[in-house]
Design brief:
This protein has 313 residues and is mainly beta. Helices cover 6% and strands 42% of the residues. The chain is built from two helices and 27 strands. The strands form seven sheets. The chain has a five-stranded antiparallel beta sheet, with no helix packed on it. β21 and β22 form a beta hairpin. The longest helix is centred in the N-terminal third of the chain and has 15 residues. The chain starts with a helix and ends with a strand.
């Protein structure tokens, strides 16, 4: 019996028994939920990018091609959404990164408007910073963003090849990086996370590796190399994208063109991985954004399947 037929038989069986279907992965992770489909209605998505989870386990998704943010509960039930195409307050032109601070405020990298916007948990516009340029507080296409335990905001200022930091009021604090030190090849690293030790973790997409820097911008470590397909080993990547850190300090990486999530230690040693297919088929999807909830649940955005997947840990 083919794998896809076997999965369908198993799925039918668990439905009859009234059990939520779970697809086991190589490491034992199981998909417990999947939501979203292509469209522009509430709960539908068009090419979602980054994802974040607040302290109450609410899930915020950058619904990029719908030019909006959507908020869901931990089980994928739609709560609210905000945003539309434009340049005004609360409007977006291809948003990309998202982060949430300790008070629940939401920060969004409004990529093609070259700014970062701040919102309440209800989606109410509060403030913004940025315009196109090279000065402090200006950007050339901000990508991934992250907030540390002191609510300092870190922004990948992509084509200025630097990281800029801001306080919770979006006041400029510092900057660091250069084309040489960041590791530019074809693109600036796209995604960012904060390690439990306070170090800055960057997914260096076109170089197929992960880079770790101190808060001040000193290179701590780089690891990873190119590997694609069935023969790709743990610790090899094909355009890594989203990165997230759990309560133990372990690092999750969306290994996009290997259609999998890799789990690494804080120092970069490979631990395990799992593939990211759909619940009912074995097709290859494209994981791009990832976040870890307070209970250890792992949320992944699939850019081309227009959905969010939730995995148990």
């Amino acid at each position: 019996m083919k794998n896809s037929q076997l999965i369908k038989v198993i799925f039918a069986a668990v439905l009859i028994c009234g059990i939520t279907p779970i697809v086991n992965a190589q490491s034992g992770q199981g998909m417990t939920k999947q939501w979203g489909e292509f469209g522009d209605k509430p709960g539908q998505l068009k090419y979602p990018t980054m994802i974040a989870v607040d302290k109450s386990s609410n899930v915020y998704v950058v619904d990029q091609h719908n030019q909006r943010i959507q908020k869901f509960d931990a089980e994928g039930n739609f709560i609210l959404m905000w945003g539309r195409l434009g340049k005004g307050p609360g409007e977006f032109t291809y948003p990309y990164g998202i982060a949430i601070d300790s008070k629940g405020f939401v920060y969004v990298a409004d990529m093609n408007n070259n700014r970062v916007q701040k919102f309440s948990p209800r989606g109410e516009y509060l403030a913004s910073i940025g315009s196109y340029g090279t000065q402090d507080g200006q950007f050339k296409y901000p990508y991934g963003i992250a907030v540390d335990e002191k609510d300092v905001l870190y922004v990948i200022d992509a084509f200025n090849y630097r990281i800029q930091t801001f306080d919770s009021d979006l006041k400029f604090l510092a900057k660091w990086g250069s084309e040489e030190s960041i590791g530019f090849k074809a693109y600036m690293p796209h995604e960012i996370a904060i390690g439990r030790d306070g170090n800055i973790i960057l997914s260096d997409r076109q170089n197929h590796r992960i880079s770790i820097f101190s808060k001040e911008g000193a290179l701590v470590k780089r690891f990873g190399q190119y590997g694609e397909g069935k023969e790709a080993k743990g610790g090899q990547f094909s355009e890594p994208h989203g990165v997230a850190v759990d309560s133990k300090g372990d690092v999750y990486v969306c290994d996009r063109y290997n259609f999998r999530i890799q789990l690494l230690t804080a120092s970069g040693e490979y631990k395990e991985h799992w593939m990211t297919p759909g619940v009912l088929d074995d097709s290859k999807h494209f994981p791009i954004g990832i976040a870890v909830g307070a209970d250890g649940s792992i949320y992944v955005t699939d850019h081309y399947a227009h959905c969010v997947q939730k995995y148990a840990r």
